[in-house]
Amino acid sequence: MLEAAIKQQLDQYLQLMEGDVVLRVSAGEDKVSNEMLELVNELASMSSRISVERATLERTPSFSVNRPSEETGIVFAGIPLGHEFTSLVLALLQVSGRAPKVDADTIKQIQNIEGTYHFESYISLSCHNCPDVVQALNVMSVLNPNIAHTMIDGAAFKDEVEAKEIMAVPTVFLNGESFGNGRMSLEEILAKLGTGPDASAFSDKDPYDVLVVGGGPAGASAAVYAARKGIRTGIIAERFGGQVMDTMGIENFIGTAYTEGPKLVASLEEHVKEYGIDVMNLQRAKRLEKKDLVEIELENGAVLKSKSVILSTGARWRNVNVPGEAEFKNKGVAYCPHCDGPLFEGKRVAVIGGGNSGIEAAIDLAGIVKHVTVLEFAPELKADQVLQDRLHSLPNVTVITNAQTTEITGTDKVNGISYVSRETNESHHVELEGVFVQIGLVPNTDWLDLVERNNFGEIVVDRHGATNVPGVFAAGDCTNSAYKQIIISMGSGATAALGAFDYMIRN
Predict the structure, then answer these.
(1) Listed residue (355, 393, 350) closest to 375, CA to CA
(2) Is residue 327 in some structural domain?
(3) Residue 173 shares a structural domain with residue 71
């Protein structure tokens, strides 16, 4: 089942196993069961530490990963290949006794969780956001015997997905109740369980020389450049990596022919940690005030002080802001075609937006769904011509321009979309099961009152990255930079850090 190159890499990882692992397999006569048996038997043939037993589990096909005398609670319902193959490899290593790469404080938080927690994560093998959730819940299962986790491949358990009306991945249930949707880090899951740090955890922090707000490419670059000057540097990040964590393929990062968002973020985080930067993850800023020092108040009530601040809060998906969008989010309204596209196999969907991201999404979805309707507000598509040519060559795509979306309709989930023709002023309705919104970004600057922003909400900066507030700088997609690209954000982060250092020298 596994290609030779993958088996060669896998063999190196299996040699790191520290104890024996038993794979208990619940299989039937179906194709998925046969492929699952082929996979687990192939794993067993590659390591004397892996054995296979037949069993009856809650779902068939599925298999559990256990120690010989202990149930860990880790179950894979479906075949963990694609993006989830790494999740399987890590589960084998961690169940065998190899310590997960988690800091001591987080391990203690997990081990101190009391009560019984059974998590179920519904994923698709093409989802690049899902492995973070699967791996985090597996780590929790390994470290705490009261926690169990089952990964469920939506393609292998379509009836279950339909019955629970799951229309976005990853979707997590806890003890049978909805727990969360979308990418979640281990720290975010712990925070949702109520074990995250409160304001008291920040009360003894001394003022910083540079405090960076935002942990995306701009923020990481700014922090590294500041720390290299030998000054006290901190990062406040709602989610380290920002939007890049949701980016699939990156082919325009100069010097790297191809990478993926999570891999790039892992490299950024590793680089930041090399400099001893104080990273405060899962923290959201809500107020900036300029006194003798610049003060940043967090949503948990803590106040951090710094001689200078670099705002790199990035941007978020722009909402179309019509009735039905918020009501049917994750119930047919989606924003990530790579993640959620497989859940709409054989169905009808719409893509709102005719730019590059919208047309790329439509092309991607056309290979999975029954039909794609593209709605573009302008008189013509704005995507690159090569993408338009590819789109128009597809038989199951309809393009409607001059279309103003007015409503996303449904009852308990999406059943259609309404729009008005800007040429004729006539109203139209299209029956469908999913809507993908791809209309660009909006900067995360709503909380800033003192800092000058333009009509788009972008922070206005000069060539040094300085804002109108002395000591406050900004970088990346939250600013009025001409282009929004990863490499440009990194460059602007470096510029802002050098600008902040120069400001401190002169003041």
Answers:
(1) 350
(2) no
(3) yes
Sign, CA torsion 372/375/381/383? negative
Residues 303 and 232 in one domain: yes
Q: Which residue has the tokens 């990255």?
A: 465
C-alpha span between 416 and 349 (Å, rounded): 9
How far is CA 400 from each of CA 231, 375, 422, 425, rounded to the nearest angstrom? 55, 5, 11, 14
Residue 167 has what pLDDT?
86
Q: Are residues 274 and 399 in the same domain?
A: no
CA distances 202 to 170, 207, 244, 294, 506, Å, are 32, 11, 27, 16, 29
Q: Is residue 162 part of a domain?
A: yes
- Whether 321 maps to a domain, the answer reads no
| pLDDT on residue 260 | 86
Intervals of the chain under pLDDT 50? none
Q: Write b or e for each residue in 95-107: b if 16 or more Cβ atoms lie within 10 A of its Cβ, otherwise e.
A: bbebebebeeebe
pTM for this predicted structure: 0.74
The answer to whether residue 411 is domain-embedded is yes
**Residues 22 and 131 both lie in one domain:** yes
Other beta carbons less than 10 A from residue 11's beta carbon: 11
CB-based contacts of 158, cutoff 8 Å, min separation 6: none
Q: Verify that 292 and 337 share a domain, yes or no.
A: no
- Which string of b and e fits 367-383 if b means at least 16 CB within 10 Å? ebbebbbbbbbeeebeb
Question: Is the Cα torsion angle 448, 452, 454, 459 positive or negative in sign?
Answer: negative
The CATH number of residue 34's host domain is 3.40.30.80
Tokens of 331: 């119930």
On whether the CB atoms of residues 112 and 118 are closer than 8 A, the answer is: no
Domains contained in the chain, number: 3
DSSP 29: S
* Same domain membership, residue 141 and residue 272: no
Q: pLDDT tens across 309-352, in order?
A: 999 999 988 999 999 999 999 899 998 887 788 889 999 999 99
Angle made by CA atoms 286, 289, 293, in degrees to the nearest 5: 125
Helices (H) and strands (E) in the chain, counts: 13, 27
Query: Do 146 and 229 belong together in one domain?
Result: no
Q: Do strands 208-213 and 171-174 pair parallel, antiparallel, or not at all (unpaired)?
A: unpaired
Dihedral angle at the C-alpha atoms of 220, 226, 227, 231, nearest 10 degrees? -150
Report the candidate in 242, 238, 225, 396 with the shortest Cα–Cα distance to residue 308: 225
CATH number of the domain enclosing 229: 3.50.50.60
Peptide linkage before 470 cis (omega within 30 of 0) = no
Query: Domain of 230?
Result: 205-316+442-506
Tokens of 257: 């022919």
List, in order, residues 6 or more apart from 456 with CB less than 8 Å away.
442, 443, 480
Contact (Cβ atoms closer than 8 angstroms) between residue 43 and residue 51: no
Distance (Å, whole) CA 167 – CA 170: 9
State whether 45 and 155 are in the same domain.
Answer: yes
Candidates 129, 215, 105, 230; CA nearest to 180 is 129
